[in-house]
């Protein structure tokens, strides 16, 4: 029947356990493990054995991990990716829209800094606690979802975005008001994660853990319930799923992820200010999951990477245009500044038209093409 | 029907939408292990009756008693926990889930792992998932949909979707299953298969069945008892043979024979 299995011929499963794995084939699983291990090794080696990166061949290999810009992009991909995954659980899996994700992201950032600064809770603990605070606020602002859907829910979450944004300025004791608040570096077992390399290791580990948790959630009872609520809420209810519970729970889990992402962001920058959590960021998160693929765990990360790299690539393009003779035309020089923003908008539109299932689906198609080549079936 | 053996008691149920009276004072009872059919012309209130039993609608008056317990005010998910499963007249599968996951959703209320244990997917949660997977495979086997278990439900042809929906309802492990037109739009072969499945789940799995169906041949062949609704009222109830010969039922289906509908030459002229 119409199953798109990419398993090689003869790869039979003999237990149900084998049939419920996250990665469909052994190769894809090991490719992922190796990729992540390579990331760790590449970052760790220069830290553990300084000087290695200057050896003739290795220097070019390790260059990206010494390039501050690349590392900061990678870290950005981590904290955005975590938050985007949260939004994908809410929007992609449960089918509820949220325009207030940036606000929960902000709560995580301020919450972690607040817990650490005020109560002296170590940062490693304050990050998950900040996630819980964000989850609690998310449950509160998600409660309208029990009654309303679609556009009306979008407006309700929009209200949440503005209310929380306003509170960031007003709640001096929590956020430091318009001055913002300082966030300390992460410390664990006596190691301070103060450099970008070390911070990346921490962020990467957290990202892996949270992505694995989400993937597990989606193959167990409550993950299925989320998708059931999205696909057909009436029959989901008849199947014994408590709609109110799952609609609100989805907000809670989504905000938890946003909070963790935000906390990571705060401790990375070392300073949290209320300006960073506007509706634009909320929309950017929506853009990420649309580009990455709604309802796909991996898609959240692919979309994030796309969104992180897009401005960089565009900036490169702008530099090239500016260096040609067109670069002297006033109309173009003035317009170039907006090129990045326009590119994000254009990317979202193009994805909606040509690949509504996002990069995750495109990735599956590429794999299928590779496996089936030269036939298309 | 005596109280002890009745699995479902519908007592004087009325349902009103503003001025429209969808059901008025309908009373019937379904015995444990019975295959009960509800028939009636279009718009007679059959699906409304179904919705009152499954909890989609709350009756304006009357009571619904399931396994000796009043369920009138309960939500659909609470009734599912108690053991009422149903299928829909218009397909209501989860289109973007695989057939397997669709059926696993039916196990929802039997699974105990919440989102925390589910996210860890370790030990108990995993064992539980796999144990229920085994049960689901039995259902898949029974309904002969093994070949499509990994297919997306939304891509399946109509007849198979109906079958998956039945599988999902069985996965609830219900004591009573409500089938809303399980054979609508099927060809003869598919109807025969479906009829066989319904008889099997009734006889072998011991699930009581309430079925709405328009195909009189099937209804009269497989059901134990039949109730007839017309304009929201129950006009007859009894064994299939009795219903077939019931004058009120004939009237409901074929119209009244008051001599006025006989076409004569005069009528033609008037028209």
From TrEMBL, chain A:
Its main location: membrane. This is Branched-chain amino acid ABC transporter permease. Keywords: Cell membrane, Membrane, Transmembrane, Transmembrane helix. The lineage of its organism: Bacteria, Pseudomonadati, Pseudomonadota, Alphaproteobacteria, Rhodospirillales. The keyword Transcription does not apply. InterPro entries: ABC_transp_permease (IPR001851), LivM-like (IPR043428). It is found in: Cell membrane. It comes from the Bacteria. It is a multi-pass membrane protein. One of its GO terms (cellular component) is plasma membrane. The chain crosses the membrane at residues 30-49, 69-90, 97-115, 121-143, 150-169, 199-218, 248-270, 276-295, 302-323, 335-354. GO terms for molecular function: branched-chain amino acid transmembrane transporter activity.
From TrEMBL, chain B:
The keyword 4Fe-4S does not apply. InterPro entries: AAA+_ATPase, ABC_AA/LPS_Transport, ABC_transporter-like_ATP-bd, BCA_ABC_TP_C, P-loop_NTPase. One of its GO terms (cellular component) is plasma membrane. Residues 8-256 form the ABC transporter domain. PANTHER family: ABC TRANSPORTER ATP-BINDING PROTEIN, CONSERVED COMPONENT OF ABC TRANSPORTER FOR NATURAL AMINO ACIDS-RELATED. One of its GO terms (molecular function) is ATP hydrolysis activity. Keywords: ATP-binding, Nucleotide-binding, Transport. This is ATP-binding cassette domain-containing protein. The keyword Transport applies. Pfam families: ABC_tran (PF00005), BCA_ABC_TP_C (PF12399).
């Amino acid at each position: 029947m119409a199953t798109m299995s990419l398993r090689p011929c003869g790869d039979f499963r003999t237990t149900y356990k084998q049939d419920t794995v996250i990665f469909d084939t052994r190769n894809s699983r090991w490719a992922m493990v190796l990729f992540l291990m390579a990331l760790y090794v590449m970052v760790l080696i220069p830290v553990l054995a300084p000087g290695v990166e200057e050896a003739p061949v290795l220097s070019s290999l390790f260059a990206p991990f010494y390039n501050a810009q690349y590392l900061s992009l990678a870290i950005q991909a981590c904290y955005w990716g975590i938050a985007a995954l949260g939004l994908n659980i809410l929007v992609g899996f449960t089918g509820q829209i949220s325009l207030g994700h940036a606000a929960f992201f902000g709560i995580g950032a301020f919450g972690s800094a607040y817990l650490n600064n005020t109560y002296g809770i170590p940062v490693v603990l304050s990050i998950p606690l900040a996630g819980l605070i964000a989850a609690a606020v998310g449950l509160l602002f998600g409660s309208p979802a029990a009654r309303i859907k679609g556009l009306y829910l979008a407006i309700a979450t929009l209200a949440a975005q503005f209310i929380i944004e306003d509170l960031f300025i007003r709640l001096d004791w929590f956020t430091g008001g318009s001055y913002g608040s300082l966030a300390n570096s992460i410390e664990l077992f006596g190691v301070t994660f103060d450099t970008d390399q070390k911070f990346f290791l921490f962020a990467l580990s957290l990202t892996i853990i949270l992505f694995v948790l989400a993937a597990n959630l989606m193959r167990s009872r409550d993950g299925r319930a989320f998708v059931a609520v999205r696909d057909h809420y009436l029959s989901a209810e008849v199947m014994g799923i408590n709609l109110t519970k799952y609609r609100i729970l989805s907000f809670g889990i989504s905000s938890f992820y946003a909070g963790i992402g935000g906390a990571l962001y705060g401790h990375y920058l070392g300073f949290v200010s209320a300006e960073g959590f506007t509706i634009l960021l909320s929309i950017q998160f929506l853009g990420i999951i649309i580009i990455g693929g709604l309802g796909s765990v991996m898609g959240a990360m692919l979309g994030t990477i796309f969104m992180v790299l897009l401005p960089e690539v565009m900036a490169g393009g702008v530099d090239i245009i500016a260096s040609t003779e067109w670069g002297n035309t006033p109309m173009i020089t003035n317009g170039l500044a907006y090129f990045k923003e326009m590119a994000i908008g254009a990317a979202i539109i193009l994805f909606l038209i040509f690949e509504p299932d996002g990069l995750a689906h495109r990735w599956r198609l590429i794999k299928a093409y590779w496996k089936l080549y030269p036939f298309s079936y | 029907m005596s109280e002890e053996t009745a699995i479902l008691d519908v007592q004087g149920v009325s349902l009103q939408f503003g001025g429209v009276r969808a059901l008025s004072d309908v009373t019937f009872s379904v015995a444990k292990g019975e295959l009960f059919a509800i028939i009636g012309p279009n718009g007679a209130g059959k699906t409304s009756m179904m919705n009152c039993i499954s909890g989609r609608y709350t009756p304006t008056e009357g009571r619904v008693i399931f396994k000796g317990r009043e369920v009138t005010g309960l939500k659909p998910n609470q009734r599912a926990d108690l053991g009422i499963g149903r299928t829909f007249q218009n397909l209501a599968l989860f289109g973007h889930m695989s057939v397997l996951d669709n059926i696993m959703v039916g196990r929802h209320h039997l699974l105990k792992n919440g989102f925390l244990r589910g996210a860890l997917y370790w030990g108990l949660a995993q064992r539980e998932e796999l144990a229920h997977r085994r049960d689901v495979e039995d259902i898949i086997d029974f309904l002969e949909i093994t070949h499509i278990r990994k297919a997306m439900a939304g891509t399946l042809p109509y007849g198979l979707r109906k079958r998956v929906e039945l599988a999902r309802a069985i996965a609830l492990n219900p004591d009573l299953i409500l089938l809303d037109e399980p054979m609508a739009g099927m060809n003869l072969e598919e109807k025969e298969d479906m009829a066989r499945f319904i008889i099997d789940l009734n006889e072998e799995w011991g699930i009581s069945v309430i079925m709405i169906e328009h195909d009189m041949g099937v209804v009269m062949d497989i059901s134990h008892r039949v109730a007839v609704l017309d304009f929201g009222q129950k006009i007859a109830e009894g064994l299939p043979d009795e219903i077939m010969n019931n004058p009120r039922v004939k009237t409901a289906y074929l119209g009244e024979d008051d001599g006025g509908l006989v076409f004569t030459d005069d009528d033609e002229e008037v028209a």
